[in-house]
């Protein structure tokens, strides 16, 4: 897919510069497409278009916004196969997962915001004041590659619902799905300038957008390092910044849990999307009394998690998104070996029978201690660490021993006990006994995992200013 134009002010137009970004299929290592490498001139045009479009969209009727969101959801449904194939080609996600999570989730998210608008309270009164909620203005969206369309729609849908206009800079590894989304938003008849797309490099387009004086809010999803730079660029103009960043989430098995179920499920919770998931439960924390049993279960399960061609309907583990990501994950595996963790599955060799593609063997380590790099840093690959504890108090302390706080899990035979433990975890989400992801629940981080929330009502509130209008007291 060769895309040579940017989507600005309701039309596909030639970029101001002539740079391009090549997109590589991580399974075949072949170039499969390219998009423009936009420039600050392109950003200026896109922001100006979004600024011009803002007054009309901010005053659009709720019915108009609901129709746009429902049309978006319907179009995502109709184009599921094309979008899923594109994301599998860009990211390497197994095709079934692409259809279900990469496209299915954004479809539901768009619909959920249309539904939310049916009953959302835009105004309320307190004594002599009327409190009104108004769209924040022009938004800049900077997104990563790992769940590319979900992360974009998780910003676009609530922003449309709120009455904001926007400029999107998708990741350079997986930008093609964003171009298909722009086609969809054009076809559903969104007014010119409400949505604009400028592809490009983070250090150029992303940073320029973050500092642009006519951008009122930046919503960023990506690494903590880039999030810090976005915040710094946004600070001089005091714009609102929301950050969805990295994680190193704990999954705690309490001693009264269904050990077999908990141990088996811990693999999927870590290796989903080949471990390239910000909310992956990568630190498994287990009672020392059950160590041997759990290690045996984990080992068997990892060995069954064979990587393969993501277009094969049976594959559950695709490649890493890029050779850079593959090398980074291999370095982390090597660091864990060097620092004394016990390798119980996987390693740094290519998986059996695979010669091409940025694959990593699903890997698990036992005897991981809090001083090790693999305990502290986000790997973003299929690497599980296992650590034992003696007491519940120690388990909680280990779970909270991280600069991150994005997600978490706890397993217990007693739901109340699990609930109490979950409340003690300093993290934005916790799954009890494998409780599934909920698109209507707020998602976001404590500590260095970010600021702000996406999804649910809280995700809509991020895009709104609050005004208090005082009436005279008679
Ligand atoms: P990344 O930080 O390298 O890139 C994310 C986006 O930021 C890209 O569009 C990139 O071009 C842009 N960018 C990079 N440097 C920038 C700068 N200086 N200024 C402005 N923009 C810049 O992250 P990635 O490798 O694409 O994604 C992986 C990371 O994202 C992981 O750390 C993961 O945990 C995190 N992530 C977090 C969530 C969440 O919701 N919390 C979701 C998905 C991914």
Condensed summary:
By secondary structure, the chain is an alpha/beta fold. It has helices at residues 40-58, 62-78, 80-91, 95-117, 148-162, 176-187, 202-211, 224-234, 259-271, 291-303, 323-338, 373-376, 392-399, 415-424, 456-461, and strands at 6-8, 11-13, 20-24, 31-36, 123-126, 129-135, 138-142, 165-169, 195-197, 217-221, 240-244, 249-253, 281-287, 342-347, 361-366, 383-389, 404-405, 408-411, 431-432, 446-447, 450-451, 464-470.
Order of the strands making up the biggest sheet: 14-15-16-13-12-18-19
CATH-scheme architecture of the largest domain: 3-Layer(aba) Sandwich
Number of helices: 15
Specify Rg, calculated over alpha carbons: 23 Å
Shape summary: globular
Total DSSP E strands? 22
Percent of residues in helices comes to 25-40%
- Which fold name corresponds to the CATH topology of the largest domain? Aldehyde Dehydrogenase, Chain A, domain 1
């Amino acid at each position: 897919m060769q895309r040579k134009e940017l989507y600005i002010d309701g039309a596909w137009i030639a970029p101001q510069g002539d740079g391009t970004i090549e997109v590589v299929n991580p399974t075949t290592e072949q170039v499969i497409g390219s998009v423009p490498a936009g420039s600050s001139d392109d950003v200026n045009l896109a922001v100006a278009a979004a600024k011009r479009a803002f007054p009309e969209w901010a005053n659009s009727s709720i019915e108009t916004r609901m129709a746009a969101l429902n049309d978006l959801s319907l179009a995502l449904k109709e184009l599921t196969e094309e979008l899923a194939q594109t994301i599998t080609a860009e990211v390497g996600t197994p095709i079934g997962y692409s259809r279900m999570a990469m496209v299915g989730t954004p479809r539901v998210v768009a619909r959920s915001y249309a539904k939310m608008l049916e009953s959302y309270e835009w105004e309320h009164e307190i004594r002599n004041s009327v409190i009104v909620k108004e769209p924040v203005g022009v938004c800049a969206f900077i997104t990563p590659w790992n769940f590319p369309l979900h992360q974009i729609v998780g910003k676009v849908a609530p922003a449309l619902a709120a009455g904001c206009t926007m400029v999107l800079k998708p990741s350079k590894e997986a930008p093609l799905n964003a171009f298909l989304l722009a086609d969809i938003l054009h076809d559903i008849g969104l007014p010119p300038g409400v949505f604009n797309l400028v592809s490009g490099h983070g250090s150029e387009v992303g940073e320029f957008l973050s500092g642009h004086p006519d951008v009122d809010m930046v919503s960023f999803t990506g690494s903590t390092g880039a999030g810090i730079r976005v915040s710094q660029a946004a600070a001089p103009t005091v714009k609102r910044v929301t950050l969805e960043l990295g994680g190193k989430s704990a999954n705690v098995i309490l001693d009264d849990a269904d050990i077999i179920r908990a141990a088996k499920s811990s693999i999927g919770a870590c290796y989903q999307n080949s471990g390239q998931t910000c909310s992956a439960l990568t630190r498994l924390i287990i009672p020392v009394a059950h160590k041997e049993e759990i290690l045996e279960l984990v080992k068997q399960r990892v060995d069954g998690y064979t990587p393969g061609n993501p277009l094969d309907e049976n594959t559950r583990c695709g490649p890493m998104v890029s050779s850079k990501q593959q090398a980074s994950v291999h370095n982390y595996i090597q660091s864990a070996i060097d620092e004394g963790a016990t390798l119980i599955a996987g390693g740094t060799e290519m998986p059996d029978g695979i010669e091409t593609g940025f694959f990593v063997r699903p890997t698990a380590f036992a005897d991981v201690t809090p001083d090790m790099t693999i305990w502290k840093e986000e790997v973003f690959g299929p690497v599980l660490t296992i650590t034992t504890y003696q007491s519940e108090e120690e388990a909680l302390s280990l779970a909270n021993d991280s600069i991150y706080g994005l997600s978490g899990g706890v397993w217990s035979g007693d739901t109340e006990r699990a609930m109490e433990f979950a409340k003690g975890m300093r993290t934005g989400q916790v799954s009890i006994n494998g409780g599934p992801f909920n698109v209507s629940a707020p998602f976001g981080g404590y500590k260095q995992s970010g600021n702000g929330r996406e999804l649910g009502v809280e995700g809509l509130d991020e895009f709104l200013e609050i005004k208090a209008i005082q009436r005279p007291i008679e």
